[in-house]
Design a protein that fits this description.
It is a single chain. This protein is an alpha+beta fold. It has a single domain, classed as Winged helix-like DNA-binding domain superfamily/Winged helix DNA-binding domain (Arc Repressor Mutant, subunit A, Orthogonal Bundle), CATH 1.10.10.10. The chain is about 60% helix and about 15% strand. It contains four helices and three strands. The chain has a three-stranded antiparallel sheet. Strand 2 and strand 3 (about 70-75) form a beta hairpin.
């Protein structure tokens, strides 16, 4: 069976964590910034994704702290998560390069 392509939300979550450990709200905010507002994760969606990424050993808990009587958990990218993110970024870049190279001749023909 072929490996599934990484979902955009997963790519953006891993990208957010590539800059350093963050807690949930920080990830939501960073994903919104990275996608220029196009992707706005809801808390339920984020925490489901974080649990899946932890189970897949792509991220791990960095630390926990109590803020305003609430637990704040920080997540970080694992080496396996960094490798997978780099491979996916390279795949996307290669696909974009092919698309742009095919568009350039077509753009020159347009009048």
């Amino acid at each position: 069976m072929a490996k599934r392509t990484m979902q955009e939300a997963t790519f953006l979550i891993l990208t957010a964590l590539a800059a350093g450990s963050q807690h949930g709200y920080g990830i939501i905010t960073d994903v919104r910034a990275i996608s220029v507002g196009r992707v706005q994760l809801k808390a339920g969606t984020l925490y489901s994704a974080l649990e899946r990424l932890r189970a897949d050993k792509l991220i791990e808990v960095d630390r926990e702290e109590i803020v305003d009587s609430r637990l704040r958990r920080y997540y970080r990218l694992t080496p396996a998560g960094g490798d997978l993110l780099a491979a996916e970024a390279a795949r996307l870049q290669a696909n974009a390069h092919v698309a742009m190279s095919r568009l350039k001749p077509a753009a020159g023909m347009a009048t």
